[in-house]
């Protein structure tokens, strides 16, 4: 069975199927923040979404991080690594992109997480 979470106009925030949670790209609402602030806001959003779906960040399997300025990768990594336990890092790609819809939007994160088995 497919379950969809948090419907928006053009997507769901996450789609669940066969024990896997596919999480849409998430960006910060406050795009006047720097890369660290935007990254932290996204991590906080992911914490809430994962919890609402019955899982958490230790169950992240993969992340795709889109940055409009790859020179900001080290600053983004500071927040990312502070958010995650070093033992539970997901497979990850960081991809430089030209545009995320607004020149102030610096980062978007899409991910996949495992859902706990129910006994």
TrEMBL record:
Q: Which PANTHER family does the entry link to? A: PTHR47328, RUTC FAMILY PROTEIN YOAB
UniProt keyword DNA damage present: no
Q: Which UniProt keywords apply?
A: Plasmid
What family does the entry list?
A: Belongs to the RutC family.
Protein's name according to its UniProt entry: Uncharacterized protein
- Domain of life here? Bacteria
Signal peptide feature range: none
User: Could you tell me which InterPro entries the record lists for this protein?
Assistant: RidA_CS, RutC-like_sf, YjgF/YER057c/UK114, YoaB-like
The species this protein was found in: Paracoccus aminophilus JCM 7686
């Amino acid at each position: 069975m497919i379950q969809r979470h948090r419907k928006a106009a053009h997507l769901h925030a996450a789609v669940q199927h066969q024990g896997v949670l596919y999480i849409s790209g998430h960006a910060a609402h406050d795009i006047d923040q720097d890369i660290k602030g935007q990254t932290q806001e996204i991590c906080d959003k992911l914490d809430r979404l994962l919890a609402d779906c019955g899982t958490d960040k230790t169950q992240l399997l993969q992340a795709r991080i889109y940055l409009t300025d790859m020179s900001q990768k080290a600053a983004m990594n500071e927040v990312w690594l502070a958010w995650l336990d070093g033992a539970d890092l997901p497979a990850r790609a960081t991809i430089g992109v030209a545009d995320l819809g607004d020149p102030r939007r610096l980062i978007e994160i899409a991910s996949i997480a495992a859902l706990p088995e129910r006994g």
